[in-house]
Amino acid sequence: MLDIADELNGWLEEGREFAVATVVSVGGSAPRGPGAALAVDSGGTAIGSVSGGCVEGAVYELCAAALSSGETVRERFGYSDEDAFAVGLTCGGVIDVLVTPVGAGASSRSSREVFRAALSTAARGGTAALARVVEGPSDLLGRALLVRPDGSYEGGLGGHPDLDRTAVAEAGALLHAGRTGTVGLSEDGSHCPGGLTLLVESRVPPPRMIVFGAVDFAAALVRAGKFLGHHVTVCDARPVFATPARFPEADEVVVEWPHRYLRDTPTDERTVLCVLTHDAKFDVPLLTEALRLPVAFVGAMGSRRTHEDRNRRLREAGVTERELSRLRSPIGLDLGARTPEETALSIAAEIVALRHGGTGAPLTGGAAPIHRGLAGAAA
User: Fold this and answer.
1) How far apart are CA 205 and CA 351, in angstroms?
2) CA–CA distance from 270 to each of 141, 207, 230, 267, 354 (Å)?
3) Cα(34)–Cα(56) distance, rounded to whole angstroms?
4) For 110-165, what is each residue's pLDDT tens digit?
5) Which of 27, 216, 255, 336 has its CA 20 to 30 A from that of 40?
6) Could you check whether the bond before residue 248 is cis, i.e. omega within 30 degrees of 0?
7) Cross-strand bridge partners of residue 133
8) Cα dist from 71 to 111, 134, 249, whole Å
9) 3-class DSSP state for residue 215?
10) What pTM was estimated for this model as a whole?
């Protein structure tokens, strides 16, 4: 439910009662992964999505029923082939949805404050993980706890006294990795799967995209990066070009030598670095730093001739072949891009493909699964 935290937090502040349906598991091809949510308030207003449209009507009715009954329920939706009007996923996948009333009935009261804290934290841009029992004994279904980065937590799952301790540890591990996924545990808190299943939704600050080079292509890439959910920084050593007026959609515009800025600024395994400076005096010291950092993506713009010359200079600067193999250059997928906007799209496409293991090839005529990696966890 944290993917619609801003709206749900607003509903709680207004005192609305609502039910939220959350995707808790996925099998085969399905358009949304674990954590995707749809909510319906007592006035019939709906927000969010669990399937991209395939089963939204049926899930809406489940939410309305949960508001009336006050009961948490789990429902499965699968492929519908013979009856074109039956409720099912036409993409051929299977999703399980947990429907939880918030503010209606006894089953939601024990977790209401946990939900309130989780939604408030997420809406403020804070870091936390919401763990819920999505499969197991009926008296535990829907129970929740909120885990913070320091290991403290609110709420509880009930049952065996070791269950909360183990759940907090598992949720903390997923939170540290910035991942949403499911965890199998026994009711006594041991790590033997089969007794119950937790869905852990992690909410972490958005991943960083740092664009080096205050050029026209950078302005388009800033917009693409924001569209993909990144916190975007533009960095250039030239103050006449690196101005907020030229990059109004960037979260930060920094005037500094790129390699010095990169050396001092926080990065992590989700950070994307895009080098558009196209100038050896900036590129070489910057990429020497970048290729030694544990970041998600390092790409550099330039022609194939520039690429070969830059690689030669990087080797002379001491960059190893293993480090050099991480460089995506020339940056972007081959879309035939010509304009800054088309180039930004090609760069964004390469970033997404690398993140999810995509090939960049057309889907037409292919046989590989369209939706990769949704069954177990979502980044």
Assistant:
1) 18
2) 33, 6, 10, 8, 12
3) 16
4) 578 899 999 999 999 899 999 999 998 888 888 999 999 999 999 988 877 789 99
5) 27
6) no
7) 198
8) 12, 13, 44
9) coil
10) 0.71
